Amino acid sequence: MDIFSKGTTGISDLYATDAELYPPNGDVVKGNTAIGPVWKGAFDAGVKNVNLETVTADPAGDQIIETGRYKLSGADSSAIDSGKYIVIWKKEKGDWKLYRDIWNTSIAAK
Hints:
Elements: E1 15-22, E2 29-30, H1 32-44, E3 49-60, E4 63-73, E5 79-92, E6 95-105
């Protein structure tokens, strides 16, 4: 999944209205309208591609818990970061939306 395929302004549409984003080294971002600008900031900072690899996707009542690995790269495909993530999905108006989204790097601190 390439989150930028919808353009940086359409990213918020991937998230539930009451979604929460838990970025590394930052505060919780609440609501899809606040989450879109976070991803736009990453894009503006040089992240041009996000590669997500789902490892598990398990139903949990009316939600799905997904775990996986990610890779962030720049315009020239140079590696920026890689790590792991957990996403909780829920249905909103008949569509699956990201409800909780957290990730952290696998690159050792210097």
